[in-house]
Design brief:
The chain is of the alpha/beta class. Helix content is 39%, strand content 23%. It contains eight helices and nine strands. The strands form three sheets. A four-stranded mixed beta sheet has the order 3-4-5-6. A three-stranded mixed beta sheet has the order 7-8-9. A two-stranded antiparallel sheet has the order 1-2. The longest helix is centred in the N-terminal third of the chain and has 13 residues.
Length: 218
């Protein structure tokens, strides 16, 4: 018997039977455990929902070869950014560095999105950016945040319909605290057409940690 983390002893016993004897019916499994099929109904549900066992009408239960970790991995890859994103915290380009620092502390975030009218993403500013400028002799009340922000198109972002896994990987790869969640908007001026990006959310390390905890609890 291979012990599977996260299963009760009875669920593990059912899994072992299905692994060695499947496909097998619910009645046959109940017989081997000297229990009624009704008593095992919730256990069957857990195993099927975990992805380790599948059920087919007139065939019975059979083993898929997946583990609990496989199932969690599959669930994470299927989750979209929109499922876990939070409300964006923004300042405008002409907000002073001082007021930006106050906003960051009051909202308790690691990164602020800097926007133009209409919520269009202009850049982002991080705690590191603000720490650097406060170490100089600059008048923080007079300096606008646009002077120190990371500007578009150098901002790393994500979309609401992107996989959470891909977005989280981007956070790790670029060693940043979070990503603005954006959607494309086509804009036209008198000379040319160009794409802009409206901020609709944020995905942070806290969102990812909360998702991890929720998966553990479920």
């Amino acid at each position: 018997m291979v012990r599977t983390i996260g299963l009760s002893k009875r669920q593990q016993a059912i899994l072992d039977i299905v692994r060695t004897e499947g496909p097998i019916t619910g009645e046959q499994i109940a017989e081997r455990l000297n229990l009624s099929r009704a008593a095992l109904r919730s256990d069957y549900t857990v195993l099927v929902m975990s992805g380790m066992v599948e059920a087919r009408p007139r065939v019975g239960y059979y083993y898929t070869g997946k583990t609990v970790l496989n199932a969690i991995s599959e669930k994470v890859r299927n989750l979209k950014v929109r499922d876990v994103q939070s409300v964006p915290v923004v300042v405008t380009e002409n907000t002073s560095v001082y007021d930006t620092i106050v906003t960051m502390f009051l909202e308790d975030v690691g990164t602020l999105m800097v926007v133009q009218p209409g919520g269009i993403l202009a850049g982002v500013v991080s705690r590191k950016d603000l720490l650097k400028v406060t170490m100089g002799n600059t008048d923080l009340h007079k300096m606008p945040v646009k002077v120190i922000m990371t500007r578009m198109p150098n901002v790393i972002s994500t979309y609401a319909d992107e996989s959470v896994w891909l977005a989280a990987k981007r956070i790790i790869d670029h060693e940043i605290d979070g990503l603005p969640v954006v959607r494309e908007k086509d804009c036209t001026d008198s000379k040319e057409e160009f794409k802009t990006y409206e901020v609709i959310g944020r995905l942070t390390k806290t969102n990812i940690t909360r998702l991890f905890v929720e998966l553990g609890e479920s």
